[in-house]
Amino acid sequence: MISSDSHEPGREASRIIDDNPHTFWHTEWSGKTPKHPHEVIIDLGNIYELAGIRLLPRQDGSQNGSVKKCEVYLRNDGENWKSVTTVTLKESKKMNIIRFKERVNGQYVKIVAYSAYNGLWTSLAEFGIIATDRK
Predict the structure, then answer these.
(1) CATH of the domain at 60
(2) Disulfide: which of 24, 79, 88, 135 matches 125 by Cβ 3.0-4.6 Å?
């Protein structure tokens, strides 16, 4: 399961877990343009021991909405989020590898984008985990 605070029709958050780098999630731009922060929440389906995550920026010709500064949160239950890192990513089309300072257990991952390259939007092509073990 995956959810986001905003999406453009046809650019839903589920696109970041479809194993297709040519599709992407994009926050709304037609109609209204919500401002940062933007967030996406991913349910991994099980609790994993995580060492980090991978984020792939959109791979088309645009940088609009590519994440610049973000914070990553994890949780095991339905209520208590734990911030595990805040990072500023480089403007690039390359995969971003975000390693946590320590391994953390989590079933749910929340990525909060506080800023982006080129605009008020947020976009992301793919999300992946760096798991050390299944709990």
Answers:
(1) 2.60.120.260
(2) 24
Question: Which range marks the domain in which residue 11 is found?
Answer: 2-134
This prediction's pTM: 0.93
Neighbours of 55 (CB within 10 A): 22
Residue 55 identity: L
3-state secondary structure the chain: CEEECCCCCCCCHHHHHCCCCCCCEECCCCCCCCCCCEEEEEEEEEEEEEEEEEEECCCCCCCCCEEEEEEEEEECCCCCCEEEEEEECCCCCCCEEEEEEEEEEEEEEEEEEEEEECCCCCEECEEEEEEEEEC
pLDDT score for 34:
87
Distance CA 25, CA 14 (A): 7
Residue 131's pLDDT is what? 84
Q: How many domains does the chain have?
A: 1
R_g (Cα) of the chain, nearest Å? 14
Calculate the average pLDDT of the chain: 93
